[in-house]
Amino acid sequence: MTTSERHLRDLRAGDDPPVVLVPGIDGTALLFYRQQPLLSEHFDTVAFPLPTGSVPSMTMATLVNDLAELVREVANDGALLVAESFGGALSMSLAIEHPELVRGLVIVNSFPYLDMRFKLRTAPWILRSIPWAAMPIVRRYTSDHLHSPHTDATDIAEFRERAKAIDRDSYIRRLQILADFDLRPRLHEIEAPTLFLAGDRDRLLPSVRWARYMHERVRRSSFEVLAGYGHVCLIDHDLDLTETVMPWWHDVGAEHSGR
Fold it and tell me: In 10 A of CB 179, how many CB atoms?
């Protein structure tokens, strides 16, 4: 299967390296709809929908291999990975296993470990008991935990519409993967310059606490709080990642390009 068949692409003339957008646990890569055009003004961009095939054998290691394959397809000298939540955990894992493929990391509302082990182990059973067609109704009652306080009603409606594309089996499998995931002992192995961003109104995860924790252990990292933003913040009409990413990349990118 070719890259154009497997991945949402927005390749335009721009600076090296290309940006690879790595989605959260939804896996669709459809929630980058606001940020991808903005980033494409500066970089070639490729969005990486998480695989939905071979679900029983899916592990974090197989996802790392899939992401590595894409980076090799689109970049001659590594890529800048922009990732949210689950995608941040995946992208940091790639940076450890294949440092030559990662020029930089922008990690949004992510984590190296989740201590809600009981919830992670019981959630798949609960999700299997709910008709998947009923999930849009469930999401209406979980909006407060997902979105920023000021998220537009139109963006919430867009989120719900795009969330209909989430594949049930692979979503549940990713939850199971997180039940055993722990990157804490290996954070010091990340060599790529890294920008940790965390919304201080995230009610789903303690994103600020985890961002600070990771920043203290990743040598070449920076940390910024996204004031007023929740977990699913990349859909917000007033958030432009380039306003934070571009100054940071201008500082660290030139240094890293001379490796």
Answer: 16
- Could you read off the pLDDT of 56-107 as tens digits, one per residue? 899 999 999 999 999 999 998 999 999 999 999 999 999 999 999 999 999 9
Domain limits at 111?
A: 3-257
Length of the chain in residues, anyone?
Answer: 259
pLDDT at 46 over 90: yes
In 3D, which of 51, 83, 251, 7 has the Cα closest to residue 170?
Answer: 51
Give the CATH number, domain containing residue 8: 3.40.50.1820
- How many CB atoms sit inside 10 A of residue 255's CB? 10
Contact 80, 19 (CB under 8 A): yes
Question: How many Cα atoms sit within 13 Å of 259 on the Cβ side?
Answer: 15
Query: How far does Cα 26 stand from its chain's mean position?
Result: 10
Which of 37, 52, 64 is closest to 165 using CA atoms? 52
* Total-model pTM: 0.87
Strand order in 194-199's β-sheet? 8-10, 43-47, 15-22, 79-84, 102-108, 194-199, 221-226
Total domain count for the chain?
1
199-213 as b/e, with b when 16 or more CB fall inside 10 Å? bebbbbbebbebbeb
Residues 91, 28, 32, 194: what is their CA dihedral angle, to the nearest 10 degrees?
A: -10
Residue 151 neighbours by CB under 8 Å, 6+ apart: 230, 232, 235, 236
